């Protein structure tokens, strides 16, 4: 969907135009599902969360500010929807806080041997808490303070979860090479 078409579609969505809503849904379905799958491994649950996210978009479309990219706003809604789901389902596993999480010697070139789908599958094997922090920090670019506020955890827990996620990913990569 091109920029001008997106602008027109969003204007129609503000007027509750069902055809425009369907067009937006179809245009962003794959992108949205890929975001949800980063946080929730189950495809059916991811689809439900995606649909919940679209409902939030359609009911709160007046809050979207056209001077900002729609994709960023939509992605933020999806991430928050997934985080709320994880909170409700109590999938945040307790972790011991580290006063200072030491970096695991995680070399990104280890991923060079894998396709995008294989990397996604490896990340899906992480526990929900580790996967969420890993995605928010490494993929989305949030700082630990922001992650702590979003997930209602301490910065130390965020650091610890990232440390453990990286360590687990290294183990999974080494295991898959055998």
Overall description:
- With 178 residues, this protein is mainly alpha-helical.
- It folds into two domains: 3-90, Rna Polymerase Sigma Factor, Chain: A (Orthogonal Bundle), CATH 1.10.1740.10; 116-175, Orthogonal Bundle (Arc Repressor Mutant, subunit A), CATH 1.10.10.10.
- It contains eight helices and no strands.
- It has helices spanning 3-14, 18-39, 43-59, 70-88, 116-124, 128-139, 144-151, 155-177.
- The radius of gyration is 18 Å and the shape is globular.
- It starts with a helix and ends with a helix.
- Residues 92-110 have low confidence and may be disordered.
**Integer count of domains:** 2
What is the C-level CATH assignment of the largest domain? Mainly Alpha
Beta-strand residue fraction: under 5%
CATH fold descriptor of the largest domain: Rna Polymerase Sigma Factor, Chain: A
Tell me the helix content: 55-70%
Largest sheet: none
The strand count comes to 0
Poorly predicted runs:
92-110
CATH H-level superfamily of the largest domain:
RNA polymerase sigma factor, region 2, helix turn helix motif
Summarize the structure.
With 178 residues, this protein is mostly helical. The chain has eight helices and no strands. The protein starts with a helix and ends with a helix.
């Amino acid at each position: 969907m091109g920029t001008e078409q997106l602008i027109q579609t969003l204007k129609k969505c503000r007027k509750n135009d069902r055809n425009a809503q369907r067009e937006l849904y179809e245009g962003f379905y794959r992108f949205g599902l890929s975001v949800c799958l980063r946080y929730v491994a189950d495809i059916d649950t991811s689809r439900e969360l995606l649909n919940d996210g679209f409902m939030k978009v359609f009911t709160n479309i007046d809050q979207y500010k056209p001077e900002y990219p729609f994709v960023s706003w939509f992605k933020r809604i999806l991430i928050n929807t997934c985080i709320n789901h994880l909170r409700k389902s109590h999938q945040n596993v307790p972790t011991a806080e580290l006063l200072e999480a030491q970096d695991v010697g995680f070399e990104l070139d280890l991923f060079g041997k894998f396709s995008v789908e294989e990397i996604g599958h490896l990340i899906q094997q992480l526990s929900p808490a580790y996967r969420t922090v890993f995605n928010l920090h490494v993929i989305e670019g949030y700082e630990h303070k922001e992650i702590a506020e979003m997930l209602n955890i301490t910065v130390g827990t965020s650091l610890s979860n990232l440390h453990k996620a990286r360590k687990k990913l290294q183990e999974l990569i080494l295991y898959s090479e055998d």
